[in-house]
Amino acid sequence: MADINLLPWREEKREHDKKQFNLMLLFSVLIAIFILLVTNYYAGVVLESQETRNTILRNEIKQLDVQIKEIKKLKKIRMALISRMNIIQNLQETRPLMVRLVDEVVEVMPKGAHLVKLERIGEQVVMTGYAMSNSSVSLLMRNIESSKWIHSPLLSEIKTKKINDKVVNEFKLSFYLKPNNLFNFKFTL
Asked: Where are the domains of the chain?
């Protein structure tokens, strides 16, 4: 049989296979790098798009916060206006009552007594005045008790004072209104 030396051929084949392996490896690395670059680029585009949307949302949130503050201010203004309207309505409703109260106080005030201050808090009215005698204060309390519009007189204090060389009794008396109307006023003579 003839001697055939296959060693150089095997050596060439190994070299060829090695080159092909290195080429395939290089090709695989290049493909991997390409895929990595494409993926990185896509992630960057997606991230940039999301950042743009986030910026738009932040700007919209800022605008909405400003609008919410304006709405809160408007609600405060609205509540103040409603409060004022209620006060005005209450004034309109109590206008005749105030006239009636002053008329009633004039009717129940006896001779020898005069009024200095009249203050209403809710349904209670506090009057301060001067009387020539204790009997005038007692008569005032009886007149209040018999009135149609006011009731429950309560004498909280009485003091003797000297004014212009005359001795007078300073009194503080409170009573209640019969109608259920809550409005505060001060009236000083």
From this structure: 98-188
For residue 138 the two structure tokens come to 């007692």
Does the predicted model carry a pTM greater than 0.70? Answer: no
The C-alpha angle 73, 76, 77, rounded to 5 degrees, equals: 85
pLDDT band, residue 144 (cuts 50/70/90): confident
Query: What is d(CA 108, CA 153) in angstroms, rounded to the nearest whole number?
Result: 12
Largest CA distance in the chain: 167
pLDDT band, very low/low/confident/very high, at 167 (cuts 50, 70, 90): confident
Tens-digit pLDDT profile for residues 29-80: 999 999 999 999 999 999 999 999 999 999 999 999 999 999 999 999 999 9
98-188 to CATH, choices 3.60.21.10, 3.30.1360.100, 3.40.1190.20, 3.40.50.1980: 3.30.1360.100
Q: For the sheet with 150-163, list strands across it.
A: 150-163, 166-177, 124-131, 113-121, 185-188
